[in-house]
Amino acid sequence: MNSILLPLFIYLAIGVVYYLIFSFASLFRSKSLKYKPLLGLNKIAVFIPAYKEDAIIIDTAKKALNQSYPTDLYQIFVIADSMQPKTIQNLKKLPIEIVEVSFEKSTKAKAINETYRRINQDFDITVVLDADNIMEPDFLNKVSDAYNSGASAMQGHRIAKNQQNELATLDAISEEVNNNIFRKGHINLGLSSALIGSGMAFDFQLFKDEMARIDAIGGFDKELELSLIKQKIKIAYLKEAYVYDEKVSESKTFGNQRTRWIAAQIRYGMRSFGNALLHLITRGNVDYFDKSFQFLLPPRLIMLGLLFILTAITTTFQIEGWTWFLGALVVYSLALTIAIPAKFMNKNTLLAMMQLPKTFWLMIRAIAGYKKAKNNFLHTTKTVQS
Question: How large is the angle between the packed helices 300-316 and 322-339, nearest 10 degrees?
Answer without folding.
Answer: 150
